[in-house]
Amino acid sequence: MNQSNTPTSGVSVDSERRPRVALFVTCLVDLFRPSVGFAAVKLIEDAGCEVHVPAAQTCCGQPAYNSGDKADTREIAEQVIEAFEGFDFIVAPSGSCGAMLKKHYPELFAGDPAWEGRANAFSEKCHELVSFLTDVMMVRDTGAALSAEVTYHDSCSGLRELGIKEQPRKLLGAVDGLTLREMKDPDVCCGFGGTFCVKYPDISNSIVTKKTGNIDASKADMLLAGDLGCLMNMAGKLKRAGSSVEFRRVAEVLAGMTDTPPIAGSGK
Amino acid sequence: MSARDSILTKIRQVNVAGSDDTARKQAVAARLSDSPRGIVPARGQLPDSERRALFEAMAQKFAATISSVADYSDIPRAVSGYLREHNLPADIRIGDDERLAKAGWDKERTLEIRHGASDGGDMTAVSHALAGIAETGTVALASGTDNPTTLNFLPEHHIVVLKASDIDGDLESIWDRLREKFGKGQMPRALNLVTGPSRSGDIEQKILLGAHGPRALHLIIVDE
Amino acid sequence: MQLTSDRFKQQAQKALVDAQLQRALLNVEKGFIGKRQMAADALPEFEALRDNARDIKNHTLAHLDLYLEAYEKKVTEAGGIVHWAENAEDARRIVLDICRKAGTKTVNKGKSMITEEIDLNDYLAANGITPVETDLGEYIIQLRGEHPSHIIAPAVHLNKEQVEGDFRRVHTHLAEARDLSEPAALLSEAREVLRKQYFEAKVGITGANFLIAETGSSVIVTNEGNGDLTQTLADVHVVVASIEKMVPTLEDTAQILRLLARSATGQDMSCYTTYSTGPRREGDPDGPKEYHVVLLDNGRSSMLGTEYQEMLRCIRCGACMNHCPVYQSVGGHAYGSVYPGPMGAVLTPSLNGIEKTGQLPNASTFCGRCEAVCPMRIPLPKMMRHWREREFEKHLTPATARYGLKLWAFFAKRPKLYRLAVSFGIPALSALGGTKHRFRALPFAGGWTRHRDLPAPEGRTFQQQWQQREALKQNVDQKRAA
Ligand code: SF4
C-alpha cells in the first residue's frame, strides 16, 4: 500500500502511535451488509490506523432528521458524539451518514452552548471512508485486483455535501485489471432518498428506472457506489428486471473482498 | 394603517434592532451613492481590437449579423444593400438621431424614409445604439425622439448602427455612460439591452428565431 | 389557481402514466441542463458571482424597508405611481381600478408569475376585462385553460401536436389547410394573431425581474420581445412585482443578470433586458403615458427573519426544477400550486401554510442538485427539512409514519436493546432471503417491493461478527500471555 507517512488533517495525531479510528458502521451496513464493514476495517488498518467499533451505535439519526423529528435526532446525535468523540477520527462507509455526522450535526446544535463546541469538534474528525483514505491518509493504491468492467454511481450526499467525486475514481483506477466505464449522468439521484422511496414509491421508481437504464447502457458488469441505500435501490430494481449486473459497495472492491455474494445476489 | 405603512412596519419589526437605525440608513445611502461594481468578468477587459472581435463573435453567436463601414456617410449604402440582399421593400423607419440624420440619405434615391415611432407597418427600422457590450454581444438602446423604442420591437428587421469606439467590455460601462449622459440615479424612460433577434423556446424547448420582436438583427459598426 | 397540493401524490401518479406528458418532460433535460452547464463553465467568475449575488440580496433584505422607500421616491420623481398591496386581493383591486380608469376592455400581459400567484386573469375576466397572455408559452396554456407547469417555460408539459390542435380549435379565421406540423409555423401563427392584439389593449401588464432603488426602474428579461411590445404600445403600463424584487443599484442588476440567463436557459444574456423608468417623457414619440407599480407583499414580509428568509433571494430562474429528479418525473402540474419544483416546495407552504401543502417539501429525495445549481445559493433542501419539522411539530405527519418513526427512534436511542432485537431479527431475515439473497415481496415492505426486490441481509449483523472477532482476539492474547 502506498501512502505518505503523516496524515494531513486539522486533527493533530501523536505521531508516535497509530491514529485511532472509530468506525461508524451505519445501520444499513450493520444489518444488511456486514462485509462492507469488514472491508472498511481492512482498508483503514492497511492505511496504518487502529480500528475501534464503539458498541453504543445504532444509526446516525438521519431518518428522524429528514422526517422533521428534531428532538429524537438530537438525542441520537448526542449519543453518537458521546460514544465517538474520544477518537482521532470517525469514519463512516457511507456518504449520506458521513454527511449527517459531518455537516448536519453542527447545524443541529448551532447556538446550543452545551453542545455546539462538541458537535463542531466531532465534525472536524468525521470522514467518509474513501475520502478519509485518499484525503487524510493519502492512500493512492489499495493493492487490490479485480478483473471487471465497472461503472460508478455518485451518491448524492457524498457528492454534493462532502465533495466526493474524484477520490473513488482515483483509487479504482489503481485496482489491477479494473476498467471504469462511466455511465451517463453518474451524478444524478437514483431515487432512493431514504424514506422517500417508500413514501413515494412510484416517483422513486420512475427515477430509478432512468438510472438503471444508464447503468445498462454503460455495458459495465458491475455497479459500484458509496452508499448502501442507493445500492439496495438500484440492485433491487435491476434484479427485478432480471439483470446480471452485480452491485457492490466500492470499499469491497478496494479491499479486495469480493468473494461474498454481491448485493441482492448474483443470479438473475 | 395604509398598506404602505403596514408593510414597512412589518419589515422594520424584523430589520430594525434597537432605537438607533443610523447604521442601516448610512449603509443604504452609501450603497446608493457609491454603486459598488462587484465582479466584472475578465472576459471583456481587452484592448480595443480584441474587444471588438469579442463583441462581434458574441453577437454572431446570438444570430445577429454584422457589417462595418468606414464612416457615417457609408451607412445609407450599407442599409440599401441589406434591404436588397433580403428582398425587402426600399423603405425604412428611423428616429431623429443626429448622427444618422447627417449620413446623407438622399444618396440612396429610391429609399423611402419615415420618421417617428413605428406604427407596426414597417418592415425595417434603423436605430443608433448608445453602446455595445463585448462580453455578451449586446447593444444598448436608449429611448427618446432620437431612437424611438417601438423601432426596436415592431419591424421584422432591425438595423442598429454602432460606433466602434462605443463598444465597451462590460455591462458596467453602460452605467457609466448613462450617468454621464443623464446624471447619477437618472435613466432614459426605456433602456433596451438587445442581444440577437427575438426568439422563443416555448414549443418543445427548441429555440426558434423571430418570436414577437424582430426576426433579424443587423449591426453596422462605424469605424470612424 | 386552486391549490391542490394536498393531492400531490394522486396527481403525481397520474402524471407518471401520462405518456404525452412523459414525452414532453424529456425536453427539460435536453432544453436546459447541458446548456446551463456549458454557459456556467464558460464564465470563470460564475461561482464568485453566485456568492456576490447572494450577498447583494442578503444586504437588500436586511435594508428592505429603506430601499423600498428610496425606490418609491425615484419612481414618483420619474412620474410613475407606486401602489402598495398587502395581499392578492388588494393587488387585484388596484389593477382593476387602473384598467377601469383607462377604459379598456382588454389587457395585454407579459409573462409574469406574480400575476399567476394573485390569480389576476380570472379576476379581470370576471370583471369584464379580457386578459391576453402574449408570451408564446403563456398564450398556449391560456388557450387551454391551464396554468403554467414551469416558471420560465410555462408550456413545457406539452408537445407540438397538442399546440397544433389548440391553434386549429381557436384560430378558426385561418385556412384549415394550413401546415402547422413544425414549431416554426406555430410560432409564426401566434406572432401574427398577437400582433393585432398589441394595438388593441390600452393597458399592458408585466412583472419585473428587478426593481432598482437607485433609479426607480423596473426590469424585465425576455427572449420573445412580447413584454416590450406589451408595455411600450399600451397607454398604461402596470408593473406587478413583489417586494423582494428590490435591488439597490444598476450594478447589482448586472451582477445578477450574469447568473439569471445562464441558469435559466444557458444563454449568456437573454434577448431583451429592458429597464423602464416612469411614463413617456416630454417629446417622446412612444412609450406608455402612465406607469404604475403595484408593490405586493403577499406573505413576503412574514418570511423575513424566519428560517425561510433565504427563499426571498430567488430570482425565478427555474434551474432548481430543471435539475430536480422529482420534477423531471412528474412535471409541474402535479404540485398543485403556482410554483412547482424545489422552489415551490419551499415557497408554497410559506405563502399558503403547511397544512395543505405538506406533501411538497416531503416529495424530495434531498439529492441536493437544486441547491447545487441555484444561482442565489438558496439552501432548498434545508428549508424543505424545516417545513418537515414544522409539520412534525404540528402533528401533521401521517400517523403511521409518525408511529413508525417513534418506534424506530425508541430502539435507536437504546443501543443495547437495539442490538438484542436485531441480533435475532436480522439472521432470521437473512435465512428467509435464501440463495437468491433478495425478496420479491415482504410484509410491511410493500412500498419498497412494489417496484423492486429487497436485498436480503447477509447473515449476522456486523456488530455480532465484530464482537466475536474481538473476543477471539482477546482469547488468543490471553493464551499467549499465559
Ligand atoms: S430557488 Fe434558485 S434555482 Fe430555483 S428558481 Fe429560485 S433562484 Fe432559480
Structure commentary:
The complex is a heterotrimer of chains A (268), B (224) and C (482). Chain A is α/β, with parallel strands linked by helices and 268 residues long. In chain A, 47% of the residues lie in helices and 13% in strands. Chain A has 13 helices and eight strands. Chain A has helices at residues 27-32, 34-46, 62-66, 70-84, 95-109, 116-125, 129-136, 156-162, 166-173, 196-199, 201-218, 228-240, 250-254; strands at 20-23, 50-52, 89-92, 126-128, 145-153, 176-180, 222-225, 246-249. In chain A, α12 links the parallel β7 (222-225) and β8. Mean pLDDT of chain A is 92; it is low at 1-11. Chain B has one domain: Rossmann fold, CATH 3.40.50. Chain B is of the alpha/beta class and 224 residues long. In chain B, the strands form three sheets. Chain B has a six-stranded parallel beta sheet, with helices on both faces. A four-stranded mixed beta sheet of chain B has the order 8-5-6-9. Chain C is an alpha/beta fold and 482 residues long. Among the domains of chain C are: 43-298, 3-Layer(aba) Sandwich (Rossmann fold), CATH 3.40.50.10420; 414-481, no CATH class. Chain C is elongated. The interface between B and C is large, with 80 and 102 residues. β9 (190-194) of chain B pairs antiparallel with β9 of chain C, so a sheet runs across the interface. Iron/sulfur cluster (SF4) binds at residues 314-320, 343, 374-376, 378 of chain C.
Question: What small molecules accompany the polymer chains?
Answer: iron/sulfur cluster
Give the spatial strand order of the biggest sheet of chain A.
Answer: 2-1-3-4
Helices and strands of chain A, in order, run as EHHEHHEHHEHEHHEHHEHEH
Largest interface: B-C, 80 and 102 residues
How many discrete structural domains of chain B?
1
Multimeric organization:
heterotrimer
Strand order of the largest sheet of chain B: 1-12-7-4-2-3
- Principal-axis shape of chain A equals globular
The amount of beta strand of chain B, in percent, is 15-25%
Short synopsis of the structure:
With 268 residues, chain A is α/β, with parallel strands linked by helices.
Key attributes of the depicted protein:
heterotrimer, A: 268 residues, alpha/beta, Rossmann fold, 2 domains, 4-stranded parallel sheet, 13 helices, 8 strands, 47% helix, C: 482 residues, 12 strands, binds iron/sulfur cluster
